[in-house]
Specification:
Helices cover 25% and strands 32% of the residues. The strands form three sheets. It has a seven-stranded mixed β-sheet, with helices on both faces. A hairpin with a 2-residue loop joins strand 7 and strand 8. The protein is globular and about 55 Å long.
Length: 253
């Protein structure tokens, strides 16, 4: 069982631990519906997530008891719906801060918010929002971070212990990560949009590099040149710039 972190102001001060659940995001969303006044910063965490969800409708597989799989309930009602992508930006930057501090080499954010270390995926983020009318009522930030897992069914995946060549304590890593998340969230609260976007682009995977992509059944070479304010990926293809939603384009290794 995880303990309440001591080094945050509000993130993780209310901690809901489930030994096993299908998805911490689903559980957190249910908690928001059942208890509309649940404290901001509530963390729902499990040792065994049996049906974790990721971007594009993918699943997130995690060996029981080896990794960090949790969701954070936030109330970013200060955020205009036109700036929802900044929820991806702040959360990805927080994880980048954490991984960089832990000594991981070549840490990048693969759009929109997957974390890569030395060209291997180490973490995925799923942001789900509750919107009524034109107002944002709440958000759930789901994080699956590979910590001590040693073996994976797919090749292009790694974990913190593989990178550092040692096992680490889950509680210690959770506390450090939550402090990074809170710090970046406070930047978002302070409307530091330009700074957050600048930091995001500085560590964006494949930015200004020529690579292969597939979209709408076609494979082509293109150059990522950033994201627009809605969070769509900007790709220069020959002399023309196009923008893509998350489900419209795939990176080709």
């Amino acid at each position: 069982m995880h303990k309440i972190p001591a080094n945050t102001l509000f993130v993780g001060k209310n901690l809901v631990f489930m030994p096993e659940c299908h998805s911490t995001n689903s559980l957190a969303l249910n908690l928001c519906q059942q208890s509309p006044f649940i404290a901001e910063g509530t963390v729902v965490i499990t040792a065994n997530q049996t049906a974790g969800r990721g971007q594009r409708g993918n699943t997130w597989d995690s060996e029981p008891g080896m990794n960090l799989t949790f969701s954070i309930i936030l109330r970013p009602n200060f955020l205009a719906t036109s700036k929802l992508f900044y929820l991806n930006i702040f959360s990805a930057l927080a994880i980048h801060d954490y991984l960089s501090e832990r000594g991981c080499p070549s840490v990048f954010i693969k759009w929109p918010n997957d974390m890569y270390v030395a060209d291997k995926k180490i973490c995925g983020v799923l942001v789900e929002n509750q919107i009524q009318g034109n107002e944002l009522n709440g958000s759930v930030i789901g994080i699956g971070l590979n910590i001590n897992q040693q073996h994976f069914d797919i090749e292009n995946v790694t974990s913190l212990s593989l990178v550092l060549d040692r096992q680490v304590g889950l509680q210690e890593e959770l506390e450090i990560l939550l402090s990074k998340i809170e710090a970046r969230y406070l930047q978002l609260r302070a409307s530091r949009f330009s700074s957050l976007m600048e930091n995001y682009l500085q560590v964006m995977y494949w930015l200004n590099e020529v690579h292969s992509f597939t979209a709408f059944g076609d494979t082509f070479e293109g150059t990522i040149c950033g994201v627009d304010q809605a969070g769509k990926l900007r790709v220069r293809i020959k002399d023309q710039e196009r923008v893509f939603e998350t489900k419209e384009i795939r990176y080709e290794q």
